[in-house]
Specification:
Elements lengths: L2 H6 L7 H13 L11 H11 L4 H5 L5 H5 L17 H5 L3 H23 L41 H17 L3 H29 E7 L6 H17 L6 H19 L4 H9 L3 E2 L4 E2 L2 E4 L4 E4 L5 E2 H14 L6 E6 L11 E8 L6 H10 L10 E5 L6 H9 L2
Antiparallel strand pairs: 1-8, 1-9, 2-3, 3-6, 4-5, 7-8
Helix pairs in contact: 2-7, 10-11, 11-13, 13-14
Protein name: PksN protein
InterPro entries: Znf_C2H2_type
Organism: Symbiodinium natans
């Protein structure tokens, strides 16, 4: 039987009986061994387990000329399915058609082998009264294990089988795509990823703050490094009872509170703050600064000063309100906090919940943002900004 003739011209009247017979056979049984198959996934798993020598041909079916030239109409004359998508995609999922194309490719390779070495290679598909006839043609000459017992309960799929099945499906899909289609798909994926990343950046700008901490002697970076090391030691011992972010956040707030209280009686520190342009006396107030991109430094803004009492109140309320569970989602340094840290400034990011319970926290942080009260611990605080992330810039640089 020349399978290629039937695949290309299945609509001829004299071929209808053969088509019906082949399709019925290929829907339920493997054409190579006669074992029952339930669906396309079961057949692929069966081929991988029982016919490993034909694995390469199965994986390359999507590029098979036999499959691409096979006649497929709606409804499909091979599986009687009125497929909703393109005929090209249906070809890769039609079990009878895939089996017949595989048989044809094996038959062709078998003829080539016999022509070169005289051997007998490849399966021999028959449509008469032999082992692979339908039920209307009589009893098969030889039963295999499981034949004639019905489908029964399908065995559960092992995870490895499911993974292999998904990988084979993906490989068949990818191999059938030309270079231009793959490039178009990649461009679409990149655009989608960039849009998604931009939306996440907008969300992060609404709920995140950036902390710039000086590593000078009057800062608290050394305290944070020590707290991080202590926490890691306890973590290895299994004795930690709080998260690292809560530990570092607590150290920062408690030290900030202590220094705000200390400056009230420390005239030397107060004099330094006044000389540096951080604060004014009578009454004690803290100046707001804003970053000047031209001069590349912070300069006094036109915003009204923050009173010392309001600054203390804001820090105290932060200690109370952020102690609640699930308020602080992230407080992390963008560089590892290690003793050998070499940097003039480290950057830390604070991310809060968007729930109503954090409304007071947002208010107090906005009050302290860009205010010189943070200079007591070497801190400059501001809201996160909407901008391109490193991943976004890398994707744009690739220009796929």
């Amino acid at each position: 039987m020349d399978v290629a003739i039937y695949l290309k011209s299945p609509t001829q009247d004299e071929m209808q009986l053969h088509i019906q017979h082949m399709s019925t056979l290929a829907k339920t049984r493997c054409l190579l061994c006669g074992e029952q198959v339930q669906d396309i996934q079961h057949w692929r798993r069966h081929m991988a387990q029982r016919h490993d020598s034909q694995k390469q041909l199965v994986q390359s079916l999507a590029q098979s000329e036999t499959l691409l030239q096979a006649h497929v109409a709606r409804p499909c004359c091979w599986c009687n399915v009125h497929f909703p998508k393109s005929a090209r995609e249906h070809r890769r999922k039609c079990l009878p058609l895939l089996q017949l194309c595989l048989y044809h490719d094996l038959h062709v390779s078998g003829d080539h082998a016999r022509a070169t070495d005289g051997g007998s290679v490849g399966p021999q598909l028959t449509t008469g009264d032999d082992a692979y006839t339908t039920e209307t043609s009589g009893t098969p000459q030889k039963y295999r294990k499981g034949m004639g017992k019905g489908a029964g309960k399908a065995p559960p799929k092992a995870k490895r089988d499911r993974d292999q099945e998904a990988e084979d499906e993906l490989m068949m899909d990818l191999e059938s795509l030309d270079e231009e289609t793959v490039r178009t798909a990649l461009k679409t994926l990149v655009k989608t990823a960039l849009r998604h990343e931009h939306q996440l950046t907008i969300l992060e700008a609404d709920r995140s703050y950036v902390f710039f901490l000086d590593t000078t002697n009057h800062g608290i970076v050394s305290m944070l490094i020590q707290a991080s090391a202590t926490w890691n030691t306890k973590f290895e011992e299994g004795t930690v009872n709080t998260s690292l972010r809560a530990t570092l956040w607590g150290v920062l707030l408690m030290e900030w509170k202590a220094r705000l209280e200390k400056i009230e009686s420390d005239t030397k520190v107060l004099q330094v703050a006044e000389t540096a342009g951080w604060a004014t006396r009578s009454p004690l107030q803290w100046i707001y600064n804003e970053w000047n991109p031209v001069q590349k430094k912070a300069l006094p803004s036109s915003r009204d000063n923050l009173t010392h009492e309001d600054a203390k109140k804001a820090v105290n309320q932060l200690i109370t309100n952020t102690a609640k569970d699930n308020t602080v989602h992230r407080f992390q340094s963008l560089r590892p906090l290690k003793p050998d840290l070499q940097a003039e400034v480290i950057t830390m990011v604070l991310t809060l919940t968007v729930h109503q319970q954090a409304a007071a926290v947002y208010h107090d942080l906005d009050l302290l943002a860009n205010n010189c009260a943070g200079k007591l611990i070497g801190l400059r605080l501001r809201r996160e900004r909407v901008g391109k992330t490193a991943l976004t810039k890398e994707l744009e640089r690739l220009q796929i």
